[in-house]
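Known limitations

Files may contain more than one protein. Parsers should not assume a single record per file. Below, a two-record file is shown to illustrate correct handling: read the sequence, read the token line, then continue until end of file.
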Amino acid sequence: MSRQDSVADTAAKPTARQRKPSSAGTAAPMDYILDEQVGFLMRRAQQRHIAIFQRIMGDDGPTPTQFAAMSKLSAGEEISQNLLGRMTAMDPATIKGVIARLEERGLVERLPDPDDQRRVRVRLSAKGREAIPGLLEKAKAISAATLAPLSREEAERLLALLARLD
């Protein structure tokens, strides 16, 4: 192949920025590239973070939602299950399941609210309080591993930007 043929062949091929094959093998529209979309990139980053979380927490560790609940409860207060759900961005059905699983593991206690029979209050059990220091150390390692590809300045900027999207 001559240099001229090579240049002509290269010029005829669309660049990755112009067209990317979709999963069906057809070209995606030129103005929409999935791999560059915020939701796609955030989902990929979340998948990476969850894999790191599971590796560091281990098979017997809490799930991310269980850890979030325990972290909020680590302040030592007894709070309503509903408030805990709002504090951890979980809907009522999700927080109910999370608390049920933590209670089964002996990490939290559910108590009736003396002021409202419909309300359930939650607190860490003695076992949960004992587990918190180690879990918080692992959580710090998870955050560090998740942000490892970035410089300190980039990590700080990313966290600040994500906080603005909330």
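...continuing to the second record:
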Amino acid sequence: MNNTFKLIDADTVTDLKAFLQRAKRLDPDGLVRLRAFGSILAAYVAPIFAGSLMDSGPTILGLRTCELAETAEVDAVVPISAVLDRLARVINEDFIDLTVEMPASQRAVWAGISPPRQGWAQVGIINETRLTKIARDGIDEVANSLPESVGGPIAARIRGEIWGRGIDLETKVPTGAAFAAAGLGFLTENEEVGLYEAEGWVRLSSEHGHVLAKASTKF
């Protein structure tokens, strides 16, 4: 495995930085899984995730890909803040060298939950306005369901119940997928977002990124 990767141009650096900044706002201590086996770098984040593999709460992954200037083999889970620091250094060097050094790898429970890479079939579309409304309604419901005195496992359970609930029986997309799509900046006004299914997973794919989650069984 390589301990560095080289982005193809300045716009790609800026794009990856913007994506990770949004992910950090959703989870200030969050991690990103960086994977590359060739010329494409895949960056996975988990704005919503269960605390353990036995937890019944949802795990919602956000995925953004970008092009590399050189082929690389990378697979590591690293702090978002550390990657942002390294991207900032590249930008400050006027893009003379677009090589990014990998931070030290860490462990993340959600990184062991791997969605399928093949076998996806499009089953429909969902308009951005609907997803945005679902995200806003979910945020309000979480806020109204969590008194200030509630914390820890109880708060996690309540959030899990809200974000893990399907938006309808037909699509089985968890509410949290809409929240992630909106929060990660994947939605463009009035865009038709593709809905895909594969092996018990659902995926929302827009022009700006993908959200992947296990199909919801709660409604």
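Parsers that stop after the first record will miss the second one. For reference, the second record is described as follows. The mean pLDDT is 91.
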